[in-house]
Each structure stands twice: as C-alpha cells, then as structure tokens.
Amino acid sequence: MPAAVLGFVGLAAFVHYNDERRAVPKGQGSDCVNVKGPIIGGPFTLVNTENKVVTEKDFLGNWVLLYFGYTSSPDIGPEQLKLITKALNTLESKENLKVLPMFVTLDPQRDNPPHLRAYLEEFESRIVGLTGPVGAIRQMAQEYRVYFRKVEEEGDDYLVETSHNMYLINPNMEVVKCFGVEYNAEELSEAIGKELKRTSS
C-alpha cells in the first residue's frame, strides 16, 4: 500500500480514536465521573433563548441537570427531554427538591434562540435553553467530554450523532454525576435525589 494511503489511514484512525476517547460509553453513565482522569466541565459563555449572553456564573447556587441535544433529533432527544421533565417534577413533588433543567444545543446553526425557546416550551417552560457560536458549543462539548458529529442526509439535511448524556451539577457548578440513556424517569429521579441528600447531609 502506498505510503500516502497508509498515512491517511493512520490519521483517520487517530482522529476516530480521539473522538471515541472523548465520548462517554453508553451504559456507563453512572460511572463516568467516578474514575480517575480529567475533570469534566468548565467555564462557558453562551446565549440563552432570550438572546442574552450567559456564563456558568449565572447558575451558581442552583443544582442543574444538563443535557446536550438538538431540536431536530427524531427520537432520542425528545424522549430524553420528556424523561428529564418527568423525573424532575417527581423529585419536586415527592421530595421538595428543585433541580434546574438545562439544554445545550449541539446544532447552533439551526437552533437559534427563538427556535430553541419554542421547542423547549413544548416540554417544560423551566428548561434553560442555550446556544451560541459553533466554536463556543464545540469547546463546551469537549470540556464535558460529549461526543458529537454531523451525519449528512439527502440534500442539505443532516442529523447529529451524539452520546446523549446528562450531567448533574452542584451549586458550585461542578459535575458530580453523569447519567446515560439507560435510566428511566423513576431511576433518574431516585439517583438525583440520593445525590442531593448525600451532599446536603
């Protein structure tokens, strides 16, 4: 095989490896921050659905459940938002524990503030929707070790392949737990409640 071809194959494998290394494996959501390694999370500067610039400092003092998705997701995205809404409503009604839901789009080119607001209001008006420049979204995704990539469809249409993880963030804006798609609403509610009670005690 020509050296140029071998070099290209090696580069492609290296890029793929790095993308996979940033992803949190499905089924290991509850363990993704309980292992030694780089800290998950970090500062960000994005735009909310009212077109106002916000940073992580604006959410200090709140427990936050953060989800990365996009409004054009055909199945998993809507299911996860319904699950989040049900879990947090259950947590508040049964345990009187409040957690702020936050949705960061991985498709800022299509998800502008008005579109994002209209989409999220279909699920829960309390969900904080964030978008912003492509570079800012990509940087935040890397800080949270979220894998995503654009998958081209017919014409100009495309989907976004992503790892679909949720992050529980404490009032100091530090990630304390990560949840994968294997959780149902009841399990998610119980796991979050357990973490909040453990921390408060």
UniProtKB/TrEMBL annotation:
Pfam family, one: SCO1-SenC
Lineage: Eukaryota, Viridiplantae, Streptophyta, Embryophyta, Tracheophyta
Family per similarity comment: Belongs to the SCO1/2 family.
InterPro entries: SCO1/SenC, Thioredoxin-like_sf
Name of this protein: Thioredoxin domain-containing protein
